[in-house]
Design brief:
alpha+beta; 16 helices; single chain; Transferase(Phosphotransferase), domain 1; globular; six-stranded mixed β-sheet; 3 domains; about 500 residues; disordered C terminus; three-stranded antiparallel β-sheet; Phosphorylase Kinase, domain 1; about 55% helix
């Protein structure tokens, strides 16, 4: 087997992972939600506890004794699994980390239950009296400690050991509920705070870096039938992924990007932020698996190519390693440069018109690119435009998303060639109706981060100039701007103009 030249940076062992940040936020929200339900709707969890207890009381004493024995064994097994594993692999530092997570989880749970008791004014109250059950027991901190320890240990453990630990904890919780020994609200609170403690410790001290090494990328490409001869880190804009250039033994040049769970989690956090801040932006649901995200991009790239769009051929999709922590997507590399790195003098009307023709093909196929910034339009060595990066694209797209594509590329191209040329070429290909309708989306919140940053660096009200140029060229009044920001700034007399209504 031919040796491969690998020119990529070394991967650090640990990182502050966005996945841990996402898990921390989720766990804290669950804990907060549970506490609010306990305080505001006392009968919800209390009634559930009574129902579970009545179900179990129908069983025999022998069954209760057997269940108690099983419970005791499981309670001892969960922490024992963690200790045995990390002693076996001589990772005493990791063992200290999970102990820290367990202690933090236990303390947080004990304090939270005590605080709830103070708020309710009682420690144990039955649902019949119209309040909530808050049991005084040391068992809830114990559950939180186990949960925190497993959360902190899981990223460092093989899948089999993780399954044993999480299954043991799940059985433990279920049995305690059925026994009536513990109450649903407190168990949920303990589990959430334990997970929050484990995630917080991981985020502060670092978790395993899921970014694949150069050797792992080579091995994955070989499994897909591609034999690499050289791999280099790529200094290109590849939002949400890590890019590489690969030369195969047959002389082909590929563009390969890897996506990890950390990058996916960062994207989820970004989408959730947009959901909170903006409305009517047409984003897809925030939560989807890494595998689904990669498969989605591959499907959209192939769909665009089948429709006649000039886009690189998909060469391979592969999973890196034995678990779905990271994946890669390989395409033919384009010899050229993206529009964000070309001299504006290179962009003739012919190139702009041909680019708009590619956009028109997408529109006829009902595909919204959703990221038509300058970095995603490539010019090859013959100055022929290509559309790349369909990671955010959508099939059977709505008119709103199609209008967003027009607004994005009219604005981004105007940054290079000015509003007049940008608008003229767009109208020549798409027609006045389509371009005029897109003015409702020509506002900063609807544009990509790169385009917004470029606009921020200018001081010439480019968006207003574009809308005015479209109105002048089409003879149609600009469409009213969509309301996008959930919270608008107060409108002053100086800025109270219809053209600024939707901007943040």
């Amino acid at each position: 087997m031919q040796a491969v030249e690998i020119n990529v940076p070394e991967v650090e062992e640990t990182v502050r992972s966005p996945t841990d940040a996402l898990n921390l936020v989720t766990a804290l929200l669950v804990a907060l939600g549970t506490s609010l339900i306990v305080i505001i709707f006392p009968d919800v969890f209390g009634g559930l506890a009574i129902d579970l207890n009545e179900i179990f009381e129908e069983g025999s004493n022998a069954a209760a004794e057997i269940t108690g024995l099983v419970l005791t064994i499981i309670a001892l097994t969960v922490p024992l699994v963690l200790v045995v594993y990390f002693v076996w692999v001589r990772e005493f530092r990791r063992l200290a980390t999970i102990v820290l997570a367990g202690v933090v989880g236990a303390i947080a749970t004990a304090l939270s239950i005590e605080l709830l008791s103070m708020i309710l004014g009682t420690s144990i109250v039955t649902p019949e009296r119209g309040t909530v059950v808050v049991a005084e027991t040391a068992y809830y901190p114990y559950v939180a400690a186990i949960t925190g320890a497993i959360t902190a240990a899981a990223p460092w453990m093989p899948r089999r050991w993780r399954r044993v630990a999480w299954t043991s904890l799940a059985v433990l919780v279920v049995v305690r509920l059925l026994l009536g020994s513990n109450l649903p609200a407190e168990l949920v609170l303990a589990l959430a705070l334990g997970a929050a403690a484990g995630s917080a410790v991981l985020f502060v001290l670092g978790s395993p870096n899921r970014q694949p090494t150069g050797r792992q990328i080579v091995d994955t490409l070989r499994r897909t039938g591609i034999e690499p001869a050289r791999i280099d880190a790529a200094n290109v804009d590849a939002r949400g992924s890590t890019p590489y250039f690969v030369v195969t033994t047959s002389g082909d040049r590929l563009f390969v990007k890897t996506l990890s769970t950390d990058e996916r989690s960062a994207d989820i956090l970004f989408r959730l932020y947009r959901r909170f801040r903006f409305t009517n932006i047409g984003d897809e649901p925030a939560f989807s698996s890494l595998r689904r995200a990669v498969e989605h991009e591959a499907l959209l790239a192939q769909s665009a190519a089948a429709a006649g769009v000039r886009t690189p051929r998909l060469a391979a999709v592969g999973r890196i390693g034995d678990e779905d922590y990271s994946m890669l997507l390989a395409q033919d590399a384009i010899e050229g440069r993206s529009l964000d790195s070309v001299d504006p003098e290179v962009l003739t009307d012919g190139i702009l018109t041909e680019t708009w023709q590619q956009v028109a093909i997408l529109r006829r196929a009902g595909i919204a690119h959703r990221d038509l910034r300058l970095a995603n339009v490539f010019l090859d060595n013959d100055n022929t435009p290509w559309l790349i990066d369909f990671g955010f694209s959508e099939l059977a797209a709505s008119d709103l998303l199609l209008q967003n594509d027009v607004a994005e590329f009219v604005t981004s191209s105007a940054l290079l060639v000015g509003p007049e040329r940008s608008v003229r070429c767009a109208i020549e290909v798409l027609g006045p109706d389509s371009v005029s309708a897109a003015t409702r989306r020509m506002q900063r919140p609807a544009l990509s981060g790169a385009t917004k940053n470029a606009l921020q660096e200018r001081d010439d009200n480019l968006l207003e100039q574009i809308r005015a140029e479209i109105a002048n060229s089409t003879g149609r009044a600009s469409a009213p701007l969509d309301r996008i920001t959930r919270l608008r700034r107060p409108v002053t007399r100086r800025s109270a103009q219809p053209s600024n209504e939707g901007e943040s």
